[in-house]
C-alpha cells in the first residue's frame, strides 16, 4: 500500500511532464530513460551478480543493428522485427556470456571489453549494414491504436516511458525473485553457493543473457529515437559511460542506474555548453565515488531518507523504529559487494 | 619469402611496443594486485611529453631520454598518494581499485585533450635513424629495427634487474609473499610506488618511440592498451616472462593476419583471446590455478 502511495505521484508526474515543458527537455528526458535502461542492464550484472562488464555497448549496438537488419534490410514489420531483435540479442548474449562468465573480476571486465571491440570492428567492416556510415531509416512502432503518435516528441516520450516501465517492472521482479537472491549469493560467496548445490555457471550465463537483453532493448529504443544506428554507439567509451552511470548512481540499488543516467545525461548537456572536456569532471566524480562514497547517489539519498524518517520517529518511539530503520538501510540485497 | 620476413619484422616491432605496455601492467598486478586500466593514459602522457620536449629542443634523443620521467613521477605519485592509501584503508576490492584507475584514465585523457586539443601530431625520425637497412635481401626501415632493439634491451635489462639484483629479489618476494617482505623491514609502499612508476615510465617510453611510426592524438593509448590487455591475459596476469612471450604471439598474429587474411584483421587477436580463455583461463604461461 505504501509503495502504491509513492507510485501515484510518480506516474502522474511522468504523464504530466511533456505537457509542462518545451520539446528539448522532453528529448533530454527520453535520452535519460534510454540510458537508464541501458545502465540497468549493466547493473543487473554488476550490482547483483558482482560482474563488472566493460563491453555492454555491444548490446546497445546489437539492439539498433538488429532492428535495422530485420526491418530496413529484410523488410519485416516493426513489431516482429523488434521481437526478432531481442531474440537474437538474447542468443548472442547467451553465447558471449557462456565464454565470458568462465572468468570473473578483472579478466571478466577485459574479455567483455575485447568481445565488444570485436563486434565494433564487425559493425565498421560490414558493408551491407552501411559500415562506418551506419544504417538509417529505423522505424518506430505504430501506436495509433493507443492514441499515441510516436513520430511526435510527446508520443516518443510516452512510448519510451511505457517500455521503460515494463522493463523496470520485469527487472524488479527478477531481482526480488529467488533467482535474484541466488545471484546476490554468488556475488557474496560463490563457493558457498556451489556448496549449496547451485549451478553457479548457469546462473551467471542466464544473468548475463538477461543483462544483455535489457541493454539491447535500450539500443533498440535509441535507434528508434534517432531513426539511425551507427558503430559509434558500440565504442568502449559508451561502455565506460554506462559504467560511470551505474557507479555514480549507486550499484546494488535498483534506482541507482536511473539516478546515474539522469545525472550523467543532464550534467553532460550542461557541461558540453561550457567545455568539450566534460569527461574530466565525470572521471573525477567517478574516482570520488569509488574511493569515498561507495553507495553512490542512490545510497546518499536513501541514507538521507531513512535518517529523516528515523529522526522523525525518534520523537515518538525510539526503540522500535531505530531497529526498523537499520534494517531498511541494509536489506540483504542492498549490501555493498566486496 | 622476402615479404614474409618483412611481416615478421613488423610483427616483432609491434610485439616490442606492446611488450613495453604489458610488462608494466603485469608487474603492477603481480606485485600490488592492482589492474591499472589507466596504463594507456600513461602511454599517451609519455608521447605528449616527448612531443613537447621535441618541439622545444628539436632533438629526438633528449625527448626519448626525458619524456618517461613525467609518466614515472605521475605513476609513482598516483600509487603512493591515492592507490596505496585506498588499499591500506582496506575497504576497496580489486575491482574498486581497477575502477579507480579507470576514472583516472578519463581524467588524464580529458586533461591532455584540454591542453593539446584533438589534433594529430608526430615526432620526426632523427637523421641518424632514417633510411633502411639491407638484411637478407630486403630493405627494412632502420627506425623500426631500433624499436625492436630497444624493446629487446628493455626486456633483457628488466630480466637482469628482476633476477639478479636485490631490488628484483624484493619485487619477486613481494609477488610471492607480501607480509614476509614487510616483516623483513622493507618499505613496501616505496617499492610499490617505484614499481608502479617504472611500469608507467615504460608505457611512456613506448609512447615516445611509437610517436614517429604512429600518430600522436589524445586517445592513442586506447587501442594499443586493449592489445596489451590481451597480452597480459594470454601471458598470465602477473607473469613477467608470460608478458614477453604473450607480446610476441599477439604481435605476430596481428601482423601476419593483417598481411595474409585482412578480412579477419579486426578479430584475430580477440579470437585468440577467446580460445585461450576457453582452454586455459589462467593464461598460457601462468601456473595452473586452483579450481573451486
Task: Give structural notes.
The complex is a heterodimer of chains A (338) and B (292). With 338 residues, chain A is mainly α. Chain A is built from 14 helices and two strands; from the N terminus they run αααααβααααβααααα. Chain A has a two-stranded antiparallel sheet with strand order 1-2. Chain A is globular. With 292 residues, chain B is mainly alpha-helical. Chain B is 73% helix and 3% strand. Chain B has twelve helices and two strands; from the N terminus they run H-H-H-H-H-E-E-H-H-H-H-H-H-H. A two-stranded antiparallel sheet of chain B has the order 1-2. The model of chain B has no long low-confidence stretch (mean pLDDT 85). The chains are: A mainly alpha (338), B mainly alpha (292).
How are the elements arranged and paired?
The complex is a heterodimer of chains A (338) and B (292).
Chain A: H1 2-20, H2 23-49, H3 57-73, H4 78-100, H5 105-125, E1 135-136, H6 153-175, H7 178-188, H8 190-195, H9 200-226, E2 228-229, H10 236-249, H11 256-274, H12 278-291, H13 296-314, H14 318-329
Antiparallel strand pairs in A: 1-2
Helix pairs in contact in A: 1-6, 2-6, 2-9, 2-10, 2-11, 3-4, 3-5, 3-9, 4-9, 7-9, 10-11, 13-14
Chain B: H1 2-32, H2 39-57, H3 60-66, H4 69-89, H5 94-116, E1 132-135, E2 138-141, H6 142-164, H7 166-176, H8 178-183, H9 188-210, H10 220-235, H11 240-260, H12 268-279
Antiparallel strand pairs in B: 1-2
